[in-house]
Automatic annotation (TrEMBL):
Residues 1-16 form the signal peptide. Residues 165-323 form the Integrase catalytic domain. This is Gypsy retrotransposon integrase-like protein 1. It comes from the Eukaryota. One of its GO terms (biological process) is DNA integration. Keywords: Signal. The keyword Coiled coil does not apply. InterPro entries: Integrase_cat-core, Integrase_H2C2, Integrase_p58-like_C, Retrovirus_Pol_polyprotein, RNaseH-like_sf, RNaseH_sf. The keyword Signal applies. One of its GO terms (molecular function) is nucleic acid binding. Pfam families: Integrase_H2C2, Integrase_p58_C, rve.
Length: 439
């Protein structure tokens, strides 16, 4: 899930209005005399007062500041209008009234225009030092614009934080569900996918439903082969956050990590495998006209044989210490008519342990190098985002009426920082009163 900061302003400044220092007092209710006094008391206008034109210079001047009956004004003419136009007489706005002027220039009545259009429109009537900077700040923190979005308004991503490299195989598992798929002959319409974060070894189990009970039963098959992990990472689906699932993990002594909602990149390795698996299943069904569940074991064999770019080895090599004999090996051996020479048990075990150790070390080194390179390239166009408890943010969340659609909603309040990239926000009006969100 992606968060949009409201530039971490106090609550009174957040809600699109930038409530003026005069509270709800309209400009029309500010008298000329009050404006004159506010100008004189504003330290940011001292330099402009010191540069006012002499009374006899005002009529002929095309630009510059002047005082008329105590009111500070400014003559201005845009470059394109110099040959044909008359200079505009801008009212110089003190700090106490600037947010009100900005609210009038960028509000529901005049439309939420962009920075340049709002700035150019303001110049015909008002001026103050660093006007464009204030216009940009105001529009950037306008909650209406953030909620509705602008075609050319792009938020830079946060810097990349690579997933930590795990040393021991099958100690950290990533799990997820795929589906619904076209029902197989046995009635399966979903898959539970499991991946070892260290070796990228994948497994997939057909399911008729993705209830917690069905998921736990499938997980038992994986654990019976590869052992009980220390950590299981999942998304925030109800089947993974249920009391039953948490109770099972607690009984097994397994810690559960939950990825941020609407941020599948935090389970990136498994999400990429999902794309590969769906492609394999689709091709199998089209080519062989077969049932996808019948072909799944063979497709998994093929997927585990493929060398991972980030690791430099296939999952089979990192788990078993050698290449598993698959269809290509079968064809190769048949063409060469070769057979494996006999090998002593001790010799085999020593070779197996050596190959497994070296492959694991090289895979770890390759992954670290790949992550460093990816982070260096990715971070060239990013900006860090840090929030504090109490900050107001927008969050990408599913719509209550349409769970498969999401948009930026809020503002919501940041409760606390969970990790360098994740924050817990308060969502009191939603079914889940708090959400874990990724920056």
């Amino acid at each position: 899930m992606l968060f949009l900061p409201l530039l971490m302003l106090p609550v009174c400044e957040v809600f699109s209005s930038f409530l003026p220092l005069l509270m709800e007092k309209d400009m029309a209710m500010v008298s000329r005399q009050e404006l004159v006094v506010a100008q004189r008391e504003d330290p940011s206008l001292k330099e402009m007062f010191s540069e006012v034109l002499a009374p006899e210079e005002v009529a002929s001047a095309m630009s510059g500041c002047f005082v008329e009956d105590g009111l500070l004004l400014r003559k201005w003419l845009s470059g394109r209008e110099v040959p044909i136009g008359e200079p505009y007489e801008q009212v110089v706005v003190p700090m106490s009234l600037r947010d009100t002027v900005l609210r009038w220039a960028h509000g529901d009545v005049v439309g939420h225009l962009g920075v340049n259009k709002t700035y150019n429109h303001l110049l015909h009537y008002f001026y103050w030092p660093q006007l464009k900077k204030d216009v940009r700040r105001f529009i950037k923190t306008c909650s209406t614009c953030q909620l509705t979005g602008k075609p050319n308004q792009c938020l830079k991503p946060a810097p990349l934080y690579p997933i930590p490299v795990i040393d021991t195989p099958f100690q950290h598992l990533i799990i997820d569900c795929v589906g619904p798929l076209p029902p197989s002959k046995s009635g399966s319409a979903y898959l539970l996918t499991v991946m070892c974060q260290n070796t990228r070894y994948p497994a997939a189990y057909p399911l008729r439903s993705i209830t917690t009970r069905a998921i736990v039963k499938a997980m038992t098959q994986f654990i019976s082969v590869f052992g009980i992990p220390r950590v299981i990472q999942s998304d925030q689906g109800s089947n993974f956050t249920s009391h039953m699932f948490k109770e099972v993990l607690q009984q097994l002594g397994v810690k559960q990590n939950q990825s941020s909602a609407y941020h599948p990149q935090s389970q990136g390795a498994l999400e990429r495998f999902h794309q590969t698996l769906k492609s394999l299943l689709r091709a199998y069904c089209v080519e062989l006209k077969g049932d996808w569940e019948e072909g799944l074991p063979w497709l998994m064999l093929a997927a585990r044989e493929v060398v991972q770019d980030s690791l430099g080895f296939s999952p089979n090599q990192l788990v078993f210490g050698h290449k598993v004999r698959g269809p290509l090996a079968l064809l190769h051996d048949g063409l060469k008519e070769v057979s494996d020479p006999p090998q002593g048990l001790l010799q085999y075990v020593e070779g197996f342990r050596r190959r497994l150790f070296l492959a694991g070390q090289m895979a770890k080194e390759n992954l670290l190098n790949k992550q460093k390179k990816m982070k260096r390239l990715f971070d060239r166009n990013t900006e860090s985002r840090v929030f504090c408890p109490g900050d107001q943010v927008l969050a990408l969340l599913p719509l209550p009426t349409s769970p498969f659609c999401a948009k930026f909603l809020g503002p919501y309040t940041v409760v606390r920082q969970v990790s360098e990239q994740n924050y817990l926000i308060s969502t009191p009006e939603r079914k889940r009163h708090s959400q874990l969100c990724h920056v």
